[in-house]
Amino acid sequence: MLKTQHHRWLGLLLWGLITALGSVALARLELSQQREAFETDARIVHRLLSQRVVQHDAVMATLALLQTAPGVSPPEQRLPSLYPQILSVQRRDAGAAWPDERLRVAETLSRALRRPTLAGVDFARGRYQLVLAAEPASFALAMDLRAVVPWSEWPMPPETSPVRVVLQHEGQDWVVQPGRLGEGGWRFDFHKHLAADSQPFHVVAWRQVGWRELPWGWMLAWAGLVAAALSSWLALQRQRAARRRAEELLRLGQVARLNTLGELAAGMAHELNQPLTAVLANTQASARLLDEEPPDMPVIRSAMAQAVEQARRASAVVGRLRRAVERPDLAAQLQPAGLQQAVQNALYLLEPELTRREVVPRLELPTARVVVLAEPVALEQILHNLLMNALQALEQVPARERQLSVSVQAEAGQGRITVTDSGPGMTDEVLARIFEPFFTTRETGLGLGLSLCETLATGMGGSLQAARRAPRGAEFRLLLPLVPGAPESQS
Questions:
Q1: pLDDT at residue 147 tops 50
Q2: What is the mean pLDDT of residues 281-296?
Q3: Per-residue pLDDT, 93
Q4: Biggest distance spanned by C-alpha atoms of the chain
Q5: Which pairs count as long-range contacts for 364-367, CB under 8 Å and 24+ apart, including other chains?
Q6: Which one is the CATH code of 217-327: 1.10.10.10, 1.10.287.130, 3.40.50.720, 3.40.50.150?
Q7: Tell me: the pLDDT tens digits for 271-284?
């Protein structure tokens, strides 16, 4: 159960980590594409507006070159019909004065700079004036900012595009495209001057990418793909764990059957030796009595001799059976074994049984490793039997009242494993006979499991104890000698 929970948490952690990394990568890719598209559109906007303002410079230069003499119909008045952004054209001939002082100041500056200059900028109304000083006449153009924008070539739908485009000049802003700006998310910026010194407007563009614009669909698909892959991996791990558990249980079952057979043979030998010895003694006595009788009974003596011979043969057969199935000396196979790991291995093997009975074991394991001298297979078999007995006892109480506790301690030179359950418990009579061979309280039991466990514990230099648990239940304590020199720590 612990290993399964470990795999489950590991799978969730991996899913979260891989999903997060993949989602971040998808988000970064989307943001990179959004930024690239924004910068491309912003550069196109700058180029289109720059082309327009350069065109205005060219128009004014043409006016200066093609100006007519005073009194002749001025051709410049036809410019508004050719260029929609030009609202009006004003001309100042030599000796005349401008109607607006700003035009006069701008003409003076234009003459000094030898290029067109701004005469007035009114972004609130979307207007500005451009003045060029020339001889014999100077010109001023009134421009409509809205018409300056070449909408037919505009790279974005101005009403729905999320990009905000603004022209800035000396603290004034004119919104070319409103866009959508919100709170949070990521913001892209673009700043660049138009390519004409006569109209030194600053093009500023913003793009706000909100959380809703992230590729959530692809992220969910990625999360599902990762979940499917990890689920397959976890299923494969569960299959492997189940196969290893089945192999381990099969091995323990084979060892248990062999040990049970040995216990059974030992019990049979114990039970049969006494009557066979009695038969042997009685037949020998009968033979002697028959020899003392006056009647000669050779047939009876022959029968008695055969009975003696058969009794001896039966005794020899039982002896050979006992020697054949007798367990090897466990003391010669002792080696260091960690009690915490043994407990976790036993619970892992019994995980399906725990789940089926809705039992969640409570573990009390010390931080320091408790190492004892034991035969590993025998230790596993004892723990397996004790835990299975506890689970079978818990089947007799309601599921909500089922409690199983396993604790490990090290004290007084011994390592101790305590298994307690909240089952129906034991009477005094059952407690007194709990380790007797062939004694059982179950209808289908052989009564050899706990007897075998006690024998195995004793063979390893330890002991197995049983006690009643208040207010209900049973407690079994397995004590085994600690490895010499190992620290003694209490949980």
A1: yes
A2: 62
A3: 86
A4: 185
A5: 364/405, 364/406, 364/407, 364/408, 364/491, 365/340, 365/407, 365/408, 365/491, 366/340, 366/408, 366/409, 366/410, 366/489, 366/490, 366/491, 367/489
A6: 1.10.287.130
A7: 455 456 556 655 66
